[in-house]
C-alpha cells in the first residue's frame, strides 16, 4: 500500500523494521530500565555496528575482485602456455 512521502523531520527520517519478539522484549526491558527510548538504542546499535558491516562488505568485495583478477590472469597465462606449446609442437613437426 502506497503512503504519502513524509517531509523530512529535523531529527531524521522514519525507517520501519520487523524484529523478532525476543529482540523487542530485550529492547523494551533495556529502555525501561534506563529511561532511554528504544529509538536511542536502535540508533546506538546501528552507529556502533554499521562501520564494521561496511568494512566487512568492502573486504569481501576486494577479496572477490582479487580472486577474480588472479583467476583471469591464471587463465590467460595458461592459454598462452598452451598456445606456445602448440606452436612448439608444430615447429618440431616441420623440422622432422
From TrEMBL:
Signal peptide: none annotated. Transmembrane segments: none annotated. InterPro entries: Arc_rbn_hlx_hlx (IPR013321), CopG (IPR002145), Ribbon_hlx_hlx (IPR010985). It holds the Pfam family RHH_1. One of its GO terms (biological process) is regulation of DNA-templated transcription. Residues 14-48 form the Ribbon-helix-helix protein CopG domain. This is Ribbon-helix-helix protein, CopG family. It comes from Corynebacterium tapiri.
